[in-house]
Amino acid sequence: MTTFAIRGRCVASPPPPDWREQLAGMLGAKPRRIGNWAELGLYGALSCLADAGETSLPPDTLLTLGSRRGTYMPTAQVLEQMHDDLPMPLTFLQTQPSQLLALLAAQMRWRGSAQFIAGGTPPALLQLASAQCGAAGVLLGWVDEMDGGSSLWLRLKPCEISAGAPVVAPAESIFLRDATHLYMVGSGAKAG
User: Fold this and answer.
1) Beta strand ranges found along the chain (DSSP E)
2) Looking at the domain 8-155, which fold is it?
3) If you placed Cys at 44, which of 18, 37, 153, 191 could pair as Cys (CB 3.0 to 4.6 Å)?
4) 173 contacts 179 by C-beta, under 8 angstroms
5) Which residues contact 149 (CB under 8 A, 6 or more apart)?
6) Tens-digit pLDDT profile for residues 60-92
7) Can you give the pLDDT at residue 12?
8) Handedness of CA 178, 114, 50, 162 (dihedral sign)
9) Rounded distance, CA 189 to CA 2, Å?
10) What's the DSSP call for residue 88?
11) What is the torsion angle, in degrees rounded to the nearest 10, for the CA atoms of residue 166, residue 167, residue 173 and residue 178?
């Protein structure tokens, strides 16, 4: 069983009404030329790091991002624009989920291993991240624009549990606000 301590989190589902103003405050300026999906991701990741007391990530930290449908809304806009002509360049760039990974790396002045996984579930994303991360852990995110938007992030570090067996909850609860640890048991994740 692999155990992760939850060092920081952001559970914005949906995000607060003033999340864009909060993001501008974190960045020192309003973000430009990025789409709503990337803004949601930046907001969540930076909020999670602030909750963990970190402003940057160690180079050997894994950055793993997932989404149920990725950049669904900009992709629909590009397809619509293609009926008449070529898509607008800025709209096309917003269809690239890896744009968020590059923005995060630049904001944190971080170089390391980052990945985006479309589809799946947060527990499956956690299972993949747990197999790939080292001692510095993982910054794990799940971003979606649908249903009012959501930006769910956890800063996880591997740890040892010293006393007794953990009390675990279903894998769907990995983003619960009161969970302090995540446990990878066999092929599934549990929160505790």
Assistant:
1) 2-12, 62-67, 113-118, 138-144, 150-159, 181-185, 188-191
2) Peroxisomal Thiolase; Chain A, domain 1 (3.40.47)
3) 153
4) yes
5) 12, 13, 14, 15, 36, 40
6) 999 999 988 777 676 677 778 788 887 776 666
7) 94
8) positive
9) 9
10) P
11) -90
- CA count, 13 A, side-chain hemisphere, 154: 28
Give domain limits for the chain.
Answer: 8-155
Tokens of 168: 């675990």
Is the separation of the CB atoms in 157 and 136 below 8 Å? yes
- pLDDT given at position 7: 94
* Omega prior to 166 cis, within 30 of 0: no
Cα-based angle 165, 192, 142 (whole degrees, multiple of 5): 145
Determine contact, residues 182/3, Cβ cutoff 8 Å.
Answer: yes
Tokens of 110: 């971080």
Burial zone of 162 (CB within 10 Å; 0-12 exposed, 13-18 middle, 19+ buried): exposed
Low-confidence ranges of the chain (pLDDT < 50): none
Measured CA to CA, the distance from residue 165 to residue 142 in angstroms comes to 28
Q: For residue 109, give the DSSP letter.
A: T
Q: For 9, which DSSP code?
A: E
